[in-house]
Amino acid sequence: MRAVVLDEPGPVTRLHLRELPVPEPERGWVRIKVEAFGLNRSELHTRLGLAEGVTFPRVPGIEAVGTVDADPDGLLPPGQQVAALMGGMGRVFDGGYAEYTVVPRAQIVPFRSDLPWATLGAVPETLQTAYGSLTTGLDLRAGQTLLIRGGTSALGLATAALAKDLGATVLATSRRPERLDDLKRQGVDHPLLDDGDVAAQVRRLLPEGVDAALELVGTPTLPDTLRATRVHGTVCFTGMLSNEWTVPDFYPIGYLPTGVRLTAYGGEASDLPAPVLQTYLDRIAAGEISLGPVHTYALDDIRTAHRDLEEGRRVGKLVGLTGRPSA
């Protein structure tokens, strides 16, 4: 099979497309014929050497979609459509950047859909994180206001769609003026240009602050996001687009505005129940909801894909396709 291998951390030139043996699953594991895989900041952190617990060489990729190719326990039939995500994929065992991958059954979410693989490949990890951030992380309710910091990321766009569907009023930021229209197209009520003082912009619209905020940029913008949130409001720290996720010398009383709650979210495959995945896939197919634009790359173009990911060249989700190029 063809697979992308990262021998050691470094620039995109450390990503190599190679021929590897098709992996054999043990009991409790399932082999998936991968059709598509989403690209995530997690894989960028792995490539840059920022992720902990990674062993090399490694096939990256914390998610994949495809069909069951082999299940030694006979619990999943061959050809069953599945998503696989998290739980060490692409870090402690080989992940989704390959034509086949082997994962623990507990990390598999079955589904049925006629959507193109490119569309399906954009959904699992993004949906899991957006859904979990809004429900577990923020407990967002209809009629509330939500600020998304890092709104034109794939996760930001997906969260905006889910929050609007829930009945929330959505504010979202971008550092690039030309991308504010992308936020409008995603249904964001108040696109905001991130000038470093988003809290002031929010308070001009909502003097008491937002009910909830999702931090996707990281610790550099977290204090400003906290200041934009009302007393008894909640900020959920989910993403690190800045590649910065620690606060040196954290002093809670000095750091947190009085009465503002700070939570975090980081989910696993078990946090994306199969009925939730199936419901959103059906609604995407029906044109009732969109998680945002999708940009596709062949395995041969993985270095270009990672450059686009690292430099933020695209608005929306980047997806790799495993199909071999036509002769």
UniProtKB/TrEMBL annotation:
Pfam families found in the cross-reference section: ADH_N, ADH_zinc_N
Entry superkingdom: Bacteria
Residue ranges of every copy of the Enoyl reductase (ER) domain listed in the record: 10-320
InterPro entries registered for this protein in UniProt: ADH-like_C, ADH-like_N, ER, GroES-like_sf, NAD(P)-bd_dom_sf
Single GO term (MF): oxidoreductase activity, acting on NAD(P)H
Keywords assigned: NADP, Oxidoreductase
Name this protein carries in UniProt: NADPH:quinone reductase
Organism of provenance: Streptomyces actuosus
